Amino acid sequence: xxxxxxxxxxxxxxxxxxxxxxxxxxxxxxxxxxxxxxxxxxxxxxxxxxxxxxxxxxxxxxxxxxxxxxxxxxxxxxxxxxxxxxxxxxxxxxxxxxxxxxxxxxxxxxxxxxxxxxxxxxxxxxxxxxxxxxxxxxxxxxxxxxxxxxxxxxxxxxxxxxxxxxxxxxxxxxxxxxxxxxxxxxxxxxxxxxxxxxxxxxxxxxxxxxxxxxxxxxxxxxxxxxxxxxxxxxxxxxxxxxxxxxxxxxxxxxxxxxxxxxxxxxxxxxxxxxxxxxxxxxxxxxxxxxxxxxxxxxxxxxxxxxxxxxxxxxxxxxxxxxxxxxxxxxxxxxxxxxxxxxxxxxxxxxxxxxxxxxxxxxxxxxxxxxxxxxxxxxxxxxxxxxxxxxxxxxxxxxxxxxxxxxxxxxxxxxxx
Length: 416
Ligand SMILES: Cc1cc2nc3c(=O)[nH]c(=O)nc-3n(C[C@H](O)[C@H](O)[C@H](O)COP(=O)(O)OP(=O)(O)OC[C@H]3O[C@@H](n4cnc5c(N)ncnc54)[C@H](O)[C@@H]3O)c2cc1C
Description:
This protein is of the alpha/beta class. The chain folds into three domains: 4-120 and 257-326, FAD/NAD(P)-binding domain, CATH 3.50.50; 123-254, FAD/NAD(P)-binding domain, CATH 3.50.50.60; 345-415. The chain is 22% helix and 33% strand. It has nine helices and 27 strands. It has helices at residues 15-26, 55-58, 64-77, 124-127, 140-149, 165-176, 199-211, 261-265, 303-321, and strands at 4-11, 32-35, 51-53, 62-63, 81-83, 87-93, 96-101, 104-115, 119-121, 137-139, 157-161, 180-185, 214-215, 218-224, 231-236, 243-246, 249-252, 256-258, 290-292, 331-335, 339-343, 346-347, 358-362, 366-375, 378-388, 394-396, 411-415. A hairpin with a 2-residue loop joins strand 6 and strand 7. Helix 1 runs parallel beside helix 3, helix 1 runs parallel beside helix 9 and helix 5 (140-149) packs parallel to helix 6 (165-176). It is globular. Residues 11-17, 35-38, 43-45, 48, 52-53, 87-88, 116-118, 140-141, 144, 166, 169, 259, 262, 294-295, 300-304, 306 line the site of flavin-adenine dinucleotide.
């Protein structure tokens, strides 16, 4: 099979992939090809028919599809080649990916590759929730595909599992489709939806919290119903009496896993915390010429954050194309519980100036936390936080970076 060639191959036509492609064209890269397995480009926002997109990158409030269309139009106008219905199935060699599309299979070779394949929510099966497999069980993503893409009827009364920002998205889709939301259930002691950055959605949150009971420190123990969901059995995490909430729809929200199949099959080093490929500040993975950006790196941030990462990654890709050397030494940055992940999770010599903060998330609520950065026995830095909240991203100042010994022990981030 003869391989086609391009200068930069981007896998994933979501905000990260498309904004990277735009920036690469702006920087003068002649051939930029973006491939996506979906029939239309635009990534996840294409399916989120509610508002909440575009404030940071387009300075206006857009629905997901409007936001996706803007990026697609800009990329097409800039001369980016976008191939849809094209799935990357593996690696032909270090810089060539195998593709499958309705036109057949092929190999696309490239000087640099950017993986921007996004995330998915863990479905019910992966969460091991007991019960039969009746109709009416969704993730937010599959719900939105069902309602907004296929225009199929869902049900009448729903329970949302999870109480983070994406749970609001599920709420908007369900109520928009005419369903009553019977309850929101989270295993954590408080809901985590109060940080949504956009004012109109904040009002929606206030309205929702008035109308819908949020059951905290509670777990969905079982889904009832054989052919169609008939209810869920919920119990307190600490133990106690189970109660049944009648409903015909259950939506599992959040609990993200990066779409890391291409990264894994390329044997890129993965990070235990993010479960995405390990990258440094320059979005460089463990393999020369292979970059990664967007939600593939670590569960779900906003579309604007993913797009900004795509743009920054493009700058580093352009430098690489112009001959910048790939770092020989990479030092891992390790998150220790309750810190769930830290980004970036590798350090290399040319990005140790400490201009950009690191970001991290925790698994638990922690009050009056001191987050400590250490290497071996040396404490490099301590930063205080009044509250750490799960499913919310925090910034860790990076002034300590120049003091890291790159050939030393891994840097550890923990709550002291
Ligand atoms: C339900 C929901 C609601 C949201 N609401 C908001 C909101 O209101 N505001 C906001 O700012 N953000 C919101 N977000 C987050 C936002 O959608 C993401 O931050 C953003 O889409 C991430 O961009 P990305 O490019 O990293 O990944 P994605 O947008 O997920 O794009 C990844 C692309 O890669 C493709 N792909 C994956 N694997 C392959 C493969 N092997 N071959 C070819 N193509 C592949 C996929 O088809 C997909 O199109 C929401 C997310 C969800 C799930």
